Amino acid sequence: MHTKSLQQCLRQSRNALMQNIQRTIVRQRRATYIKVVAKLASSFHSIYENHNYNPVENGEYELLRKLSGIDVKCIFDVGAHIGNWSCFVTNLFPQANIHAFEVAPVTFLQLQQQISRLCKQRIHLNNRGLSDSNKCIEMYYYPDHTDLTCDRNRFPQHLHQVISARLQTGDEYVQEKDIKQIDLLKIDVEGTEYAVLKGLNSSLEKEMVHLLYFEFGPFSVDTRILLRDYYDLLGKKFWIGKIYPNYVDFRDYNWRYEDFRPAHYLAVLRSRPDLKRLLS
After folding, report:
1. pLDDT on residue 132
2. Residue of 247, 238, 240 whose CA lies nearest to 271
3. How many Å apart are CA 45 and CA 51, to the nearest integer?
4. Contact status, residue 131 vs residue 192, Cβ threshold 8 Å
5. Angle, nearest 10°, between helix axes 105-115 and 84-92?
6. What is the mean pLDDT of residues 245-271?
7. 95, 100, 106, 111 alpha-carbon torsion, rounded to 10°
8. Among the four residues 17, 212, 215, 264, which has the most C-beta atoms within 10 Å?
9. How is the chain classified by DSSP, letter by letter?
10. Higher pLDDT, 223 or 121
11. Alpha-carbon Rg for the chain in angstroms
12. What is the mean pLDDT of residues 17-30?
């Protein structure tokens, strides 16, 4: 049988199988076994698509390890929380200066305490956040879930406190500190990642940021910021890809990626094909 005929036969068999499955589901959608299979399929797909916030498992730390052999001098940790990520990159990149940003005062105190055990000369702590403008706003701090601090009450099931937070544009901070290049920018700010990038627009346009990664997911439902907005903002200067446990899948935009499930994306400056090859 010719290859073309074999492929056609396989395609017809697959289509027939899918039609049979569809008919079975339509007839027995309420059956327990159908619900169990659906749940298993959903869980499988979630694992396959790396819907995982744990940096040890989802590829974030593996990505950083791959970068440990390159010359990294300046790192931004936006949404530093208590400093676990900053501590990790401090050990990986012994020559780098790290600028860590945390808005919540109580969390910032914990950040200071943890960083005090490291090389403080290389880590610059800022009790403020980055955004698209300079301002002071009310934010929501969750004492029992300090990693969830955000600009709106997204977690009403948890006890919260309203705090005053100072925000600054990244471009202004870069100018204040006379920073010439940001080798690695990490953004984890519970739904306001796009605003952080807008506040760094001048630095991005000047190609001062070489590599950045950000979260995209369910909070985009209420911010109304789509993955397409990130591609529109970054796509001319950066290759963009989704982070998986062992590699980054660099790819063009497709509306099918707008699933609002937890995901981490990486952007690499187009003038750094070495980084793209290293991480692909």
Report:
1. 96
2. 238
3. 9
4. yes
5. 30
6. 96
7. -10
8. 212
9. --HHHHHHHHHHHHHHHHHHHHHHHHHHTTSHHHHHHHHHHHHHHHHHTT----TTTSSHHHHHHHHTTS---EEEEES-TTSHHHHHHHHH-TT-EEEEE---HHHHHHHHHHHTTS-GGGEEEESSEEESS-EEEEEEE-TT-GGG-BSS---TTS--EEEEEEEEEHHHHHHHTT---BSEEEE--TT-HHHHHHTTHHHHHTT-B-EEEEEESTTHHHH---HHHHHHHHTTTEEEEEE-SS-EEE----GGG---S-EEEEEEETT-HHHHHHH-
10. 223
11. 22
12. 88
Please, which pLDDT band fits residue 181 given cuts at 50, 70 and 90?
very high
Q: Which amino acid is at 105?
A: P
CA dist 59 and 56 (Å) reads 7
The residue length of the chain stands at 280
pTM of the model: 0.90
